[in-house]
Amino acid sequence: MDLELLAQLTVSGLVVGSTYALLGVSFGVIYATTRIFHLAHAVAYAGAAYAAVWSADTLGLPFWPALVVGLVAAAVLGVAIEVLFYRPMRRRNATLLTIFLVSLGISVAFPNLLQLAFGPENQSLPRPDNPTYGLGSVTISRHDVATLLICWVLIAAVATYIARTRFGRSVTAMRTNPAMAEAVGIDGKKVYLFVFLIGSLLAGVAGLLFTAKGVATPTMGLQPTLTGFIAAFLGGIGSQWGAALGGLALGLISSWSALYLQVDYGPVVVFGAMFLVLLIRPQGLLGKAAA
């Protein structure tokens, strides 16, 4: 085994796994609370990227203010989907399957709207320099270091807020027993708005981190959303640290698989890992077994 290659792949896996961890937390906090398979989460991811590109190209904003515009767009899009689509459907007692189909429709329609507005070409942000640093035989870029720090600081902040604050405990109560939570005075609408706001912001951060190093495309949100779903279930629904661990594991496994497999087999490895873990531990790595 090439140990130098393994070390480089491990660093790459940690960076990619950190974004998967952030996506797992972003998807998991919404799903665990609402039980909505929010496939339209892809809208916040791609919307943040395109809003940042638009503000830089059209408004002439510098790099950092453009990122702020992208984050605002992600939050607005996520909350708008809850208020304009999901909430009226719940009011009419729509089934979760029906809401999922609406979410699927939104996730299909939005890339087409992006393509009509911006064209099919890849879009990129004017970005600052991205120097690389050497750690022995391993190289890591400044963007990679920033990705690691940003992802784990945000994950820790969200997990701490939900575990330690009064409103965070309201989120946990709505996840555990919605009827009882509302009976004791917890406002379910506010809790749902909160989880869509936080989840969408985290997805927007992930989308901007990707675009700051790569390019924005109309369909860029679907694969990360599915990865976030896998990470959330792999780690255990309802556990922010579990979702983060699941995402980190996915990043490392997919990166290490390059030692023996072609890159094209990465998704197969990811789904295979999820299948094996859930076969042995259906509640996920840090999830609690049903009573």
UniProtKB/TrEMBL annotation:
It is found in: Cell membrane. Pfam families: BPD_transp_2 (PF02653). The chain crosses the membrane at residues 6-32, 39-56, 62-85, 97-118, 145-163, 191-210, 230-253, 265-284. Keywords: Amino-acid transport, Cell inner membrane, Cell membrane, Membrane, Transmembrane, Transmembrane helix, Transport. This is Branched-chain amino acid ABC transporter permease. It comes from Nocardioides aquiterrae. Belongs to the binding-protein-dependent transport system permease family. LivHM subfamily. The keyword Oxidoreductase does not apply. The lineage of its organism: Bacteria, Bacillati, Actinomycetota, Actinomycetes, Propionibacteriales. It comes from the Bacteria. The keyword Flavoprotein does not apply. It is a multi-pass membrane protein. InterPro entries: ABC_transp_permease (IPR001851), BCAA_transport_permease (IPR052157).
